[in-house]
Amino acid sequence: MKYITAIVFSFLSLNVIAEDGLVTQFVITKTIKISEESETRQIYNNAVLVNFNDVHSIDFKGQYTFKITTRTDDFKKVNLLINLKDISTGKPYYVGGHAMDLTVGDSASFELNHSNTNITYSVQLDTSYGKLP
């Protein structure tokens, strides 16, 4: 009887977790180096709520296209693939992509460089659970 109760409880727990999505809050800092002594920074932040084990592409007000691919087996650790496209100049530019493994609740950061220019993109991520609508 204890084993049946444990199995039922585990199944119910998995169902509760399966209703949760992944909230990814991010800050993108675009740094343009003008000279050795001068640079400008543009900071953009937002958050998205996405399903686990899915691919989502989100456009943010003519600034960025943010593509996030999530993969998980246990809904605790998640593999993220982030692709970033800068559309702020009117000409879409693929900045790059970065993959990482995170435990939900953790934060991470990485940098992407615009080739042949003095532009650097710093991306900071923070993850948590959120209820899907």
What does this structure look like?
By secondary structure, the chain is mainly beta. The protein has one domain (about 20-130). The chain contains one helix and eight strands. The chain has one helix at about 1-20, and strands spanning about 20-35, 40-50, 55-60, 65-70, 75-85, 95-105, 105-115, 120-130. The longest helix is centred in the first third of the chain and has 17 residues, at about 1-20.
Secondary structure topology:
Layout: H1 2-18, E1 20-35, E2 38-50, E3 54-60, E4 64-71, E5 77-86, E6 93-103, E7 107-113, E8 119-131
Antiparallel strand pairs: 1-2, 1-8, 3-4, 4-5, 5-6, 7-8
Short recap of the structure:
The chain contains one helix and eight strands; from the N terminus they run H-E-E-E-E-E-E-E-E. It is mainly beta and 133 residues long. The strands form two sheets. A four-stranded antiparallel β-sheet has the order 2-1-8-7. Strands 3-4-5-6 form a four-stranded antiparallel β-sheet, with no helix packed on it.
> Which range best describes the helical content: under 10%, 10-25%, 25-40%, 40-55%, 55-70% or over 70%?
10-25%
Walk across the major sheet and give the strand order.
2-1-8-7
Between the first and last Cα atoms, what is the distance in angstroms?
A: 36 Å
Please tell me how large the radius of gyration is.
19 Å
Low-confidence stretches: none
Q: Main β-sheet, in a few words?
A: 4 strands, antiparallel
**Structural class, from helix and strand content?**
mainly beta
Which oligomeric state applies? single chain
Strand content: over 45%
Write down how many β-strands occur, each being a DSSP E stretch of 2 or more residues: 8
Structural domain count: 1
Please write the string of helix (H) and strand (E) elements: HEEEEEEEE
Mean pLDDT level = 88
Helical segment count = 1
- Quick one: overall form? elongated
